[in-house]
Amino acid sequence: MPTAAVLALAVLAAYLLGSIPFAVVVSKAFGLSDPRSYGSGNPGATNVLRSGNKKAALLTLLGDALKGWVAVFAAQCLALGDTAVGLVALAVFFGHLFPVFLKFKGGKGVATAAGVLIALEWPLGLAVLATWLLVAFVSRYSSLAAVVAAALAPVYVALSQGTNGQIVVVGILAMALIGKHWQNIQRLLAGQESKIGSKKKA
Q1: pLDDT at 130
Q2: What confidence score (pLDDT) does residue 41 get?
Q3: Region of 64 on the Ramachandran plot (φ > 0 left; ψ -120 to 50 alpha; else beta)
Q4: For residue range 135-151, what is the model confidence (pLDDT) as tens digits?
Q5: Which pLDDT tens digit goes with each residue over 96-106?
Q6: Is 152 exposed, middle or buried (0-12, 13-18, 19+ CB in 10 A)?
Q7: Is 30:106 a contact under the CB 8 Å cutoff?
Q8: What is the pLDDT of residue 202?
Q9: Which residues touch 201 (CB under 8 Å, ≥6 apart)?
Q10: pLDDT at residue 200, as a whole number
Q11: Is 163 left (phi over 0), alpha (psi -120 to 50) or beta?
């Protein structure tokens, strides 16, 4: 078990890594508008896609997923213990949701959560990712795919006989992700949600 100081540093580092706003960084690098200024206003890959630049959206997706994976993988390599790894996983995820670099107004966390889950248990991560892809392909709604995938993630952990700690961590991730999609859920119910690939609106 790491000392309190080591654990605190690991959690802080994970949070700061999660706070890196790849949607904003990539958009600026490509000379695009700030993703917070159009569409849903969300600094995430789906909204960057509304700019029409698929390469920028893909890089945003990879960056957001990679930071989740790197944080958890590093904690595992350092043998910090299951509890510490779980805290690091939550820290990098909540860093994305509430980034200090964007005044705590971040993205929805789908890609970062996927990276975290793949690092925790790659079959779990792939199962959740496959669920998102299937629902997104059928419905063309990124938000619906995210909510369904998040809701099923704890179920997948339980079916795979994951530890209690994994169930708790994944459960928290799922509830937070669904909570961040609450307005999307309202728009889905009202038939007003934008589909994947729809063009940006000021």
Answers
A1: 94
A2: 87
A3: alpha
A4: 999 999 989 999 999 99
A5: 999 999 999 99
A6: middle
A7: no
A8: 47
A9: 38, 39, 50
A10: 54
A11: beta
State the DSSP code for 37: G
Q: Exposed, middle or buried by CB within 10 Å (0-12, 13-18, 19+), for 178?
A: middle
DSSP alpha helices (H): ranges in the chain? 4-18, 22-29, 45-49, 54-77, 82-97, 110-120, 122-139, 142-159, 164-180, 182-190
Identify the three-state secondary structure at position 10: helix
Which residues in the chain land under pLDDT 50? 202
The pair phi, psi for residue 80, each rounded to 5°, is -75, -15
Return all residues near 159 (Cβ < 8 A) that are at least 6 apart: none
Q: Which of 72, 122, 75, 129 is nearest to 96 (CA)?
A: 72
Cα–Cα distance for residue pair 45/196, rounded to 1 Å: 11
* φ, ψ at 201 (rounded to 5°): -130, 140
- The answer to whether 193 and 182 have CB atoms below 8 angstroms apart is no
Name the one residue in this structure whose structure tokens are 């600026």: 28
CB within 8 A of 69, min separation 6: which ones? Answer: 115, 116, 118, 119
Those residues whose C-beta lies under 8 Å from the C-beta of residue 167, and which sit 6 or more positions away, are 154, 157, 158
**Is-contact 40 200, C-beta < 8 A?**
no
